[in-house]
Design goal:
This protein is an all-alpha fold and 192 residues long. The chain is 67% helix and 0% strand.
Length: 192
């Protein structure tokens, strides 16, 4: 159950990322900063610090909890918290996405994991821009989304770069159009 939960959490993250990146700028991901090698290692999570519900959910790994790497402990603790907060519909969706994750090849999973890490390493403003692009993409009619996906898949890397530049330029123009405009206040009148 817990190993399935852990895999499902990783799968949900990867699937969310795959959906999120359907409209994400590839050039932004390519420019993601490298992780800081001097960053602090994750701290271990004490079993006693977990809520009774989390302990019940993670019970199958209780006997080896102390031997799990701290990063794994933290991921399981966060995942169990999210699972417990989900509605029955959300849990059903998570199970469905987990099944989709299991059907992916190891290479596809690894690609999604790398993209997720790149996304998480982006500055918050870029992450927000990607999320907004994704929401805008999802609001398009299905035929338009299909057409854009096909166009992207057929494009060469240079064409994709051009597409991204055009999209960013269009976004900048929309933002400028939405910016508040200031009227010039008339100054003192000059005599003619």
């Amino acid at each position: 159950m817990v190993e399935g939960l852990e895999t499902m959490i990783n799968g949900c993250k990867a699937l969310m990322l795959a959906l999120l990146l359907a409209a994400a700028p590839a050039c932004a991901l390519a420019q993601a900063p490298a992780p800081d090698p001097q960053a602090q290692a994750p701290a271990a999570v004490a079993w006693s610090s977990l809520s009774p519900q989390q302990q019940r959910l993670l019970g199958p790994v209780a006997d080896r909890w102390g031997s799990l790497p701290p990063a794994r402990q933290q991921a399981l603790a966060r995942g169990s918290q999210r699972w417990l907060k989900m509605s029955p519909q959300q849990r059903s969706m998570a199970r469905q996405r987990f099944q989709q994750w299991r059907q992916l090849s190891p290479q596809q999973r690894q690609t999604l994991r790398r993209r997720w890490q790149k996304f998480k390493s982006l500055p918050p403003q870029q992450q927000q821009a990607i999320r907004q692009s994704y929401r805008a993409f999802q609001q398009l009619p299905p035929w338009r989304r299909r057409m854009l996906r096909q166009q992207w898949q057929r494009a060469t890397p240079a064409q994709r770069q051009q597409m991204m530049q055009r999209a960013w330029e269009a976004r900048r123009q929309r933002q400028m159009m939405q910016a508040p405009r200031f009227r010039m206040m008339p100054g003192p009148r000059r005599p003619h």
